[in-house]
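Please check these two lines:
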Amino acid sequence: MPAYDAVVFTKPEAQFVESTMQAYSQNQAAGGETDNGAAVPITGLERQKALNILSKVHCQVMDESQLPISFTSEEAALMSYLYINYLQGHGKAQGDLSPTYWITFDVSAQALIISVLKKIGCNVNIMPSNRYPFSGPKPSYND
């Protein structure tokens, strides 16, 4: 049985999934802000998947004693895709090509996302570092 067939989120996890699916279904960036045209428009099918996820997770947000949620493989794939991209640097200013702009991730938010990914069946075998890009030293521009 795939992990996404019986998922029980903690309240913070459920609230995170709910807020991200709400924003995604409205084609918004994190924090409710628009991407000023940088967001790739989502399809009607992707929007419907996000709304399905949102409705399922909302029950766990309202009542933590709810039975496990069963996601489809497509819904789990959408969440995996979005949250892996988030961990790999989502939130970096769109169109900002300045290599001096570094993202610092909040450790608790990072752990929350990884926990959600594990619960839907992703193989998350390494924790990413807390900055973007994930490898190599921070560049020096004093040369």
About this structure: Residues 3-119 form one domain.
